[in-house]
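Side project, low priority. Logging it here so it doesn't get lost.
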Amino acid sequence: MDSSTERDSSSDTMDTSAIIECQNIECQIPRDNRKAIPYEKKIVSDFETYQFWVYALLTTIAMGCTNGLFTLSDTACCESVEKFGAQFGRQRLYGALGWGLISPIGGLLNDYTDDFTASWILMAVMSIASLLNILRLDLVKPQFSKNLMKDIGAVLRSKEFLAFKLCVLLNGVCTGVLWYYLVWYLTVIGGSRLLCGLVQTVQCFVGEIPCMFFSGWVIRKIGYFNVVTLSLMCYFTRFFWYSYLTNPWLVLPAECLSGITYGLFYPAVASYAKFSAKPGTEATTQAVLFTAHEGLGK
């Protein structure tokens, strides 16, 4: 009996201590645990973020300034080459030369840095160098039309000019697809940033520079309309090649066609604008054509 009583007493003591321990356990989950337990993340549209609208605003301002720069620089170049008896394409090829040299450098910097800060710094340095060079140029001042709207209206009523502008617009659409989606597509299928820079190098050195050098001769042989038509055919070939692309490095052979889609096309458009413009309306006529390409098309 004594041993049985002792076992019962010991059992009661253990039960009591267990109850006390359970009572002393502090709950680790807060009373209001709605913030502690994550719910399913809400998908926020880009249009609801201020970062998107700030980026869109800055991009719009930058592209507006860039397109204006292209128009004015091409007009000044056309006036200068006419004065000195040079060819537009052989001057414009230096832009392709700079593009081809700097693009792989920018891609390599982006591969070895955490963000795109290095590319922004490189752009700022090159922009300052370009500005200093522009300040030293002896530019030819073009004539200005006294009846600008009337002269531009006469050009816009030309069926030939409107047909050419339509071809320029279609080329702009194709250019926009390449500029905004080719690099993205290459990164999706495993391409590096260095490869994206080398794409620009092949475009410039293999395609654009040789074609720009001989652009004057080609335009005289086949004409402005045939050049822009040939450019559209080459875009079709490039898009067909991209559709079957699995190895990102195989994009490089197709980029040789950039010599026609840009190296021949760009001098043809600039020269046609100069050819079709009334005296004193060269810059405005350039703007009309390149707005169809850079603005409406892209």
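Brief comment: The chain has one domain: 86-295.
Revisit when time allows.
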